[in-house]
């Protein structure tokens, strides 16, 4: 990306109750196999992109050293951020200039601007090909191609869309509308709204759990109406409301066990245990914290303190502030301002071949799926409900209606995941069904970082 080298895999006064910043306030085998390819993504340099709203700039921070590398002019009132997966660039909503600025870490400059009226929150799809941007002026969501830097679709949203988040598999976009107290669910296949979920008062920040099962929404509210709503992604309903003190930004740790929420009224960050939906710690930070983001290794949370002109760095092991970094004026950093780097996946290893190869197996046999990730991740790396498989047409012939089309048969025989500490190799034994004889299937393995890996099988 613009000369940025790819990162190598590692083996190893009282707080102000100001109204939050907002623009309003200021047939052939080749054909059968097409689309099945999958590859892993290396863990990249952990840059943070911090908009300084009052200075009309964005600063690039190297989170490995906590040193700022550059400060770049963006236009008037930068606010929201979506960092790319490899941290090589970020998309910044520049509210009062009416555009999204594309910032490159390699060139330390804005390499493109994309017109969007009063942009607010924004999010990239996991494959990085589409950017969804809340546009306050018309109550719309703009869909942008990151290849052409053009708006390719406009979706009618609610009143004043604010936070935007993508599901880990890229199939859904969640949009919080602070003016209409709801969250919209958008299908990325059709760019149509498929669900409308009532939440609390004035929802701003939104984040999705790494396994895609829950969505967390910060409802700024008033007094007792200030909550964090927990949405079940399966039912598109609120399953819990957690009291908070004027929550604004929200982020989930990579292991999905903790949710961190900025609290404007408390000048603090609330730590929520996702198993109990209870606040287990409150961390004092700077004045009027807005955005926050978790590093890809889950060890630190960076918090943008709007009225203190600083970043607080929280160690997740102790939930204590371990560093405070000065910034420009009014750092909002609303959204995922640190790139959500994924696991460094290599595999599948023999005896399984990767697409477009077709693996011939006896139906009912056990198939070892072997792969490696970067070190230190433990066993909680496979998303719930995976691996699974579905019937596909075998190359070169039509299949009758009697083919077994089940996609979850193997869930009855869930196997444990094993990790060889010496080689770092994971092994999952996939138990196939005898009923699959004479059919072909597409196996899908989704990891808790949202990455998807596939293999093709023909059963005899």
Beta strand count: 36
Name of the CATH homologous superfamily of the largest domain: YVTN repeat-like/Quinoprotein amine dehydrogenase
> Largest sheet, described in full?
5 strands, mixed
Q: What's the CATH topology name of the largest domain?
A: Methylamine Dehydrogenase, Chain H
CATH architecture of the largest domain: 7 Propeller
Strand numbers in spatial order across the main sheet: 7-6-5-4-28
| Mass-distribution shape | globular
Q: Output the radius of gyration.
A: 22 Å
Secondary structure: helix percent: under 10%
Could you tell me how far the N terminus lies from the C terminus, measured between alpha carbons in angstroms? 44 Å
Strand content: over 45%
Would you identify the regions where 5 or more consecutive residues have pLDDT less than 50? 1-45, 399-412
Class derived from helix and strand content:
mainly beta
Write structural notes for this entry.
The chain has one helix at residues 29-33; strands at residues 47-52, 57-62, 67-73, 78-83, 89-94, 99-104, 109-115, 119-124, 130-135, 140-145, 150-156, 161-166, 172-177, 182-187, 192-198, 203-208, 214-219, 227-232, 237-243, 247-252, 258-263, 268-273, 278-284, 289-294, 300-305, 310-315, 320-326, 334-336, 346-347, 358-361, 366-372, 388-392, 417-420, 425-431, 440-446, 452-459. With 460 residues, the chain is mainly beta. The strands form nine sheets. The chain has a five-stranded mixed β-sheet, with no helix packed on it. The chain has a four-stranded antiparallel β-sheet with strand order 8-9-10-11, with no helix packed on it. The longest helix has 5 residues, at 29-33. It is globular, with a radius of gyration of 22 Å. The protein starts with 28 loop residues before the first helix and ends with a strand.
